[in-house]
């Protein structure tokens, strides 16, 4: 069975596309996939009821991504891959990357290909490029490798260690957005006003550096404050929505140590940091439909 995790970017999204560091976690929810020999190549995605054939020139990015994935295995039988997606799409949890990782992992399994999860992540970047154009690589890497880690484009992933688990509560705004469009919007802002946007990136990089220390020291009160500050900077880049902002405020008022939007923004998800497991369950109920708890061990 192939598996690709969902991911939550704790700090540093968007800035990471432009070379800054980001911290992300892999979560238990994700995508599972199974590959079996078949008469022709087919990818089924449930619960969406979607079936696609590979097509390098297809209109649907899934057709093109599937063709790119299959082309990595030059001599092979035709394969039918059944994937089950347990993540909202377009919601900032790295759904497309998790599908890519799960599909490649399933094909590896069916063909007896053995490789490390890091090599699997590298292969999945080609899949991710079909969807995002200019991905930083954080989604496919965290999806394949998991844990809590500091990521910078071009550098080896740096796993962070702590003896204190992170009690995260993830809330879904119900609004979906396109990562490609949101990344392009920040790119345009950078072109039009480099001074302002580079200052925002520098601020984010500083928050990431401090968060690295806070995670390793188990200082979740400080970490929560850093999340709040990162949220404010992302808001200044016009990535936040009223709904996401309200959800973060609700979580803070209900006792979260900090809260921020996560991923591309313009909709999608936010998360809150709870001081303890039972408080995380309470915050989940406060955040309403679609919210769930992710306990992450560094
Ligand atoms: O919203 P998601 O899960 O696609 O996350 C995107 C993260 C960005 O930093 C906005 C883009 C990237 O490639 O790193």
Question: What labels describe this entry?
Answer:
9 helices, 298 residues, four-stranded antiparallel sheet, single chain, globular, 44% helix, seven-stranded mixed sheet, binds (3R)-3-hydroxy-3-methyl-5-(phosphonooxy)pentanoic acid, alpha+beta
Can you walk me through this structure?
The structure is a single chain. This protein has helices at 61-71, 95-111, 117-132, 138-145, 179-192, 194-217, 220-236, 242-253, 277-287, and strands at residues 2-11, 22-37, 42-46, 50-52, 79-85, 148-151, 158-159, 166-172, 258-262, 269-274, 292-296. The protein contains nine helices and eleven strands. The mean pLDDT is 96. With 298 residues, the chain is of the alpha+beta class. It starts with a strand and ends with a strand. A hairpin with a 6-residue loop joins strand 6 (148-151) and strand 7 (158-159). Helix 2 crosses helix 3, helix 5 crosses helix 6 (194-217) and helix 6 runs antiparallel to helix 7 (220-236). Strands 1, 2, 3, 4, 5, 6 and 7 form a seven-stranded mixed sheet that branches. A four-stranded antiparallel sheet has the order 9-10-8-11. The site of (3R)-3-hydroxy-3-methyl-5-(phosphonooxy)pentanoic acid (PMV) has 18 residues, from helix 4 and helix 5.
């Amino acid at each position: 069975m192939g598996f690709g995790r969902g991911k939550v970017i704790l700090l540093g999204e968007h800035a990471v596309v432009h070379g800054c560091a980001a911290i992300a976690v892999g979560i238990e929810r994700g995508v599972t996939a199974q590959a079996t020999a078949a008469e022709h190549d087919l990818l089924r995605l449930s619960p969406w009821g979607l079936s696609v054939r590979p097509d390098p020139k297809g209109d649907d990015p899934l057709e093109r991504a599937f063709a790119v994935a299959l082309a990595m295995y030059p001599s092979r039988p035709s394969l039918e891959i059944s994937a089950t997606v347990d993540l909202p799409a377009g919601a900032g949890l790295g759904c497309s990357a998790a599908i890519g990782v799960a599909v490649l992992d399933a094909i590896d399994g069916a063909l007896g290909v053995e490789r490390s999860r890091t090599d699997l992540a590298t292969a999945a970047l080609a899949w991710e490029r079909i969807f995002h154009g200019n991905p930083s690589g954080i989604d496919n890497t965290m999806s394949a490798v998991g844990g809590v880690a500091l990521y910078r484009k071009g550098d080896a992933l740096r796993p962070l260690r702590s003896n204190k688990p992170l009690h995260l509560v993830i809330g879904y705004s119900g609004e979906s957005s396109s990562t490609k469009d949101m990344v392009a919007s920040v790119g345009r802002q950078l072109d039009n006003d480099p001074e302002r946007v580079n200052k925002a990136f520098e601020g984010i990089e500083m928050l990431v550096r401090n968060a690295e220390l806070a995670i390793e020291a188990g200082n979740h009160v400080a970490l929560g404050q850093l999340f709040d500050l990162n949220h404010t900077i992302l808001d200044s880049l016009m990535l936040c929505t009223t709904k996401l902002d309200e959800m973060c405020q609700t979580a803070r008022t209900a006792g979260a140590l900090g809260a921020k939007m996560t991923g591309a923004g313009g909709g999608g998800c936010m998360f809150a940091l709870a001081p303890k497991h039972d408080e995380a369950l309470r915050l989940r109920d406060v955040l309403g439909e679609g919210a769930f708890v992710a306990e992450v061990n560094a």
